[in-house]
Amino acid sequence: MIKKAMILAAGFGKRINPLTLKNPKPLLRIGNETLLSNTLKFLEMYEIKEVVINVHYLGEQIINYIKNKKFNLTINIVKEENKILDTGGGVLNAIQYFSDLPFLIINPDTIWSSNYLKEIKLMEKSFFENKKNKCSLLVVNKKESFDQSLKGDFNLKNNLINREGTDDLNYIYTGLQIIKAEVFTDLDLKIFSMNQIWDKLIKTNELHGTES
Predict the structure, then answer these.
(1) CA–CA separation, 99 vs 105, rounded Å?
(2) pLDDT of residue 139
């Protein structure tokens, strides 16, 4: 079973300004929780034991928040000091925390709930059954979105992700993936998007998907 996860928490959150002018997006509140605490508690429910959180924009607020709260997890903070490294670069910068075992990468801006637990368990089971699997994304059909104007990110066929027909992509990335550290091997990059990893895996039919 997967025991480690990474929460991507370094972003500027510009799309929801002015809410993020003084607060980092992961610390925005949803009821009695923040997006970050909700994500951490979700990972606890999934029995994750160790979490890495990368920070950059207003990162000290996140660091202090973690220090002042109690979570039943080992939490490691990785600071991106001078420049934000984007999603892929952020993971690569923290890769020393992960062995050759698969781990989760999760975005805190999805409202994660216990409803997702069954889906992730099925996703994990499928991941381990295919020994060649390097990365698998949890996706949802865009027809299920509240915002029908959203464009899709991918298509899904026979559990493989593709981007064929860029004007007609029917699936949206939920913000959760299972991945192996080996996909970052031999990368001569520091600042890059996870999309570069995904596109590379799509070319070799190695990017898998599970529909939420």
Answers:
(1) 14
(2) 97
79: alpha, beta or left? (left if phi > 0; alpha if psi -120 to 50): beta
pLDDT above 90 for 165 = no
Kindly report the CA angle at 192 between 100 and 48, in degrees rounded to 5? Answer: 40
Q: Is 135 exposed, middle or buried (0-12, 13-18, 19+ CB in 10 A)?
A: buried
Quick: pLDDT tens for 48-88: 999 999 999 999 999 999 999 989 999 999 999 999 999 99
Instruction: Judge residue 9's burial from the number of C-beta atoms within 10 Å of its C-beta, 0-12 exposed, 13-18 middle, 19 or more buried.
Output: buried
CB–CB of 35/108 below 8 Å? yes
DSSP, collapsed to helix, strand or coil, labels residue 53 as strand
Place of tokens 């991945």: 179
Please report the pLDDT score of residue 131 as a whole number.
86
> Can you list the alpha helix ranges (DSSP code H) found in 46-183?
59-68, 86-93, 117-129
Note the pTM of the prediction, 2 decimals: 0.96
Query: What separation in angstroms does the CA of 100 have from each of 85, 112, 198?
Result: 22, 26, 18
Question: How many whole angstroms separate alpha carbon 203 and alpha carbon 90?
Answer: 23
The sign of the dihedral angle between the CA atoms of 26, 31, 37, 41 is negative
CB atoms within 10 A of CB 44: 14
Query: Tokens for 98?
Result: 């992960």
